Amino acid sequence: MTEPSVDLSNIQGNIVAGFNKDNQIIMFLTFPDSKIRLRNWIRHMSRWVATTEEVRAFNAVFRLTRSRRPQHREPLSATWVQLLLTAEGLKRLDVPESEIQAVDLALAEGMSARAEALGDTGDSAPDRWHPPFGRGSIHAALIVASDNDHDLRKESDDLERQFRTHGVQLVWKQEGHTLPDPLRGHEHFGFKDGISQPAVAGLDESPTGGPPAVPLGEFVLGYPDGSGAVREMPDWAKDGSLGVFRRLRQEVGPFREFLKTTAAATNLSEDALGAKLVGRWKSGAAIDQAPDADDPSIVREERNNAFDYSDDPDGLRTPRFGHIRKVFPRDQVPNPPSGDAHRRRIIRRGAPYGPILPPDPTPGQVDKDRGLLFICFQASLVEQFELIQQMWCNATDFPVGPVPPVQGYEPTPGVPGDGPDPIVGMHHGAGVNNLKLQGRPDQQVPLQQFVRTTGGEYLFCPSISALEGWSK
Ligand code: N7H
Predict the structure, then answer these.
(1) pTM of the predicted protein model
(2) CA–CA separation, 15 vs 89, rounded Å?
(3) Atom of ligand 1 nearest to the CA of 278
(4) Residue 346 Cβ contacting ligand 1 at under 6 Å
């Protein structure tokens, strides 16, 4: 493992290290008109945000104590803060538009301007988003994360006091929490989340047999990326990262109903159909490794992420439309324009929001707003998140058939794929998924939109030295 020459005390702590907390509050802010007040607040925050060095050290000690003393549910606790800026926020700090564009075109334009391309239309269109999203008024976001609710609230109260002192306005606050038992560690549809994250070369242990470690430059600006090149960047961008925030509402009641009716029609159990849509069973076991039934015993084994799709080119085990196969096709290295799947990785840092839906819910409970605060970090919004959402999840013909997948594997008009991502593809309920089953005729599974976008922002996560520079 070669350490890249990197100053971990200059990179904020929720990118390659990860806060990994049960409780989060995300605060969306607008800046004061006064440059002096703004710069004072930025100076203040440059000493408040957590660094990778701190978070990484804490996480290591936390793991150590947890493994020796598992009976102590909270042997150590911490509360961390991350500061992110929108393009509008960067401009308030006198960053020229041309430099923002050079760092990332999607950041410069903002998520709502990219809505058509992302498939955020109809029910997911920006004019339907929760205000203040999609109105161009947000300048910054703070992610506050804590092991316990008491500390989370105390930290956010302290931050709010600071906003008042510096004339920063809190325009929207969104909480996210790990779901209570029995869904702890799972998202609202019931599937275990947080299993597969990229290992970062030089920082994380390289996985045995799993997807190869990814160069730091795929997530943090100013380092060699997967091609070995370092992109030209304005100085303020070095040690920064590009962030995506999407407030994704999940319709859990209709999802359960759909599994019930469609499972009967496809002769699969509800659990097996759900696993086909996601690519993992509810326990988190990969169907690649447990093709016939859920096997929670393999979830912690290395093989649960040490697989690829080379021995399942037609998607008989993991459908080619299955969520985890769409968003990371592993060995199915598509040619341009999609490029190598290992150059399209993202680090996810989201959290569920809203109450769980009990097994026998009342209509009032079904209608409640619940979903995922989807957050991810990467070096390029255009080349990573947007490409995945647009060209892989939303596309009906990715991955295309027929096999072999390795050569000439790019969306070809007339060559059918098996449909969009049934979980996060923005298909708006049009079309079908073509479900291939070993020894049985293919099944056409109708699409229904269970996830819609109700807000979002593209964000830049600056280095500590950039914050210091802007505070002068
Ligand atoms: Fe997904 N889900 O419950 O179905 N996701 N995701 N995601 N997702 C993953 O491996 C889910 C969304 C990725 O390395 C798991 O950690 C839901 C978006 C990536 O093999 C589950 C929503 C995007 C991976 C879910 C949602 C992604 C991944 C398996 C929205 C990017 C890793 C657990 C409400 C555009 C894939 C795990 C790999 C895994 C679900 C959103 C990307 C269960 C419900 C928008 C890269």
Answers:
(1) 0.96
(2) 20
(3) 4
(4) yes
